[in-house]
Amino acid sequence: MSLSEGNHSAFSMPPDDLSHVPFRVYTDEELYALEQTRIFRGPTWNFLALECEIPAVGDYKTTYVGDAPIIVVRGESCINALVNRCAHKGALICYKHAGNVREFSCVYHNWTYDLSGKLTGVALRRGVAGKGGLAADFDQASHGLERLRVETYRGLIFGTFSEKTPPFLDYIGRALAANIDRVLIKPLRVVGYHCQALPNNWKLYAENNRDSYHASLLHVFHNTFGVVRPSMGGGVKISDSGWHHLSFTQREPVADKDVGSEKVRSLNEQYKLADPSMMEHKLELGDQVTNAIQTIFPSVVVQQILNALAVRQIQPKGVDRTELVWTILGFTDDDAEMAELRLKVNNLVGPAGLISMEDGCVGGFVQRAAKADPTALVVMPMGGRDIAGSEGSRVTEAAVRGFWKGWRECMGF
Amino acid sequence: MSLPCTNELSPLGSDLALRLRIEALYAAYAQAIDDDRLEDWPKFFVEHGKYRVTTRENHGRGLALAMMYCDGRGMMSDRISALRLANIYEPHVYCHLTSAVRIVDCASAEIGAQANFLVIRTMQEGEQTIFACGRTYDRIVDVEGRLLFKDRLVVLDSRQVDTLLVIPI
Q1: What distance in Å separates the CA atoms of residue A141 and residue A113, rounded to the nearest whole number?
Q2: ipTM for this prediction
Q3: In this predicted structure, what is the pLDDT of residue A302?
Q4: Cβ separation of A193 and B65 shorter than 8 Å?
Q5: pTM across the whole model
Q6: A362 contact residues in B (CB cutoff 8 A)
Q7: Domain A46-125+138-151, CATH among 1.20.120.140, 3.10.129.10, 2.102.10.10, 3.90.870.10
Q8: By the CB < 8 Å criterion, does B40 face chain A?
Q9: Is residue B11 exposed (0-12), middle (13-18) or buried (19+ Cβ within 10 Å)?
Q10: A351:B164 CB<8 A
């Protein structure tokens, strides 16, 4: 799809330029509505749940793909993802976050569905005493719950509305799948959940995760305690499509002089932790990587920060509001000591995260200022103008430009 | 769970004295936070005291995750130094309201107490919102005549935190 096929009234993106974006993309209701059909119902894989959250047949969890409410349920033979909307009047079929059912039944008029979403029963279909009831021409077979295609990878469950979405591995590419293999090496357990309401458009958070440039600048705690410093080794990998990325840091520092004399806001000298035990890093993944942030377009992040493992799901809730759902992970074979370390190290992330809380407010700072002039342009010049990954340096916005490439290709702008 | 302290037949005087001391502890704790005397916050705990903030969602499912997890005063003072020196957030203050104080266990030297709380957050622009409400579950000990928290578990009713949580509750 070419960038010129979009048909939003009076909206255009800078031609052949991924390093500029008008502020309007964060504030425009019409674009938000288009994103629902072209991105979230478009050729994208969206994170739904973890297999370990629905271990038994009939276990379900509810979530969202864009604005669409979704049920993820383990069926007899496979995992199903169904739009959580009765085929009759459209009421939510499941209004709880999680549970176990033999079948689904809508509370409104008691229409029932099996775990694959097939309509199995219509209450009072023959009416009462021969009067009323279902129209003779009603085709039950064509009134099931809308289904998404589902694929699982290393315990992560993804869904897509589109027949055009390539298989998941082709979608993200093997080079980036390798990091999921690296992090999710063992059977998973859920340590807990966080849900954070962000006062900004969903794309600002999606960009933030791809913005490896900000990590050691905004997050002073990060820089100060050596999880991420500009001088540490690592790099940025970007999928061939540009849509997905991995930014990682590892303990093999290049000389600090290479950072140059520019001031990086750091408090190394004066600032010591009274109790550094949460920063203890047990090497459990067979390497020295301290920080790996991986994005899968459009709306999920796989995170490893020391021993803090998580999946972050970005749920748009209108043009200027986003819910960020953190599923904090451990492995089923964590011993008591490891389980305790996970609780401690998770002080770093979540809504109160010592190195993540800033991401909760900084998107709001952009959102508020974006209103000033929606036609003005955001500029993203760090690391050039293209979407090439980089070895050794994370001082680049290439992955953010890659996000905009994905956005434009889906949206047709 | 035994409820000796709410038994009408127990001596009223000693019950009242304990209740007043616990309510005074809660008020002093809340005002230290609301007045931005956050360096005093760890001093409301014993040296190896525990402080956790979690949600009903996690607590109800038996999930151990906390958004703030401090094991000892050291981790608590690290929270405060990070807030002062490292973290970036828009200036705001809390007003804590505490009610329904209940002493659930005072049979031993360690007192179990619970209370409901409401935290109203006021941003620098003046926007006021109910930031959090929920229940505190406390284990309290008397150290040389002063009541201190041995364990304070703060359970937020909502699964959702607006923007960020930096000041303890």
Answers
A1: 11
A2: 0.93
A3: 98
A4: yes
A5: 0.93
A6: 88
A7: 2.102.10.10
A8: no
A9: exposed
A10: yes
